Amino acid sequence: MARYVWDRKTYQFRDKKTGEPMEVKDDNAICAPMICSDIPEYRSPIDGRWITTRSERREDLKRNGCIEIDPPKRPRGYKNERYAKKHNLPLGTR
Fold it and tell me: By CB distance 3.0 to 4.6 Å, which of 13, 47, 52, 76 could disulfide with 22?
């Protein structure tokens, strides 16, 4: 997925890597990037510091040697052995 940054000189979004302007498919349509809301404040369960932004969360995890588990990382595949075998699909492991 492309990432865009706002260019203050030309008043348009540009691709972060290439510098090309963001493609607008319909001139009458509203074209804007998606913006994710920030996370709610919480105290780090590791060292008790307040975490207020996603960047602080990443720094806290890195500083304490932890990894993010949202969403949980689990092997892909089907649980039902009979169904997987019948349709020649991968069987998940636990």
Answer: 13
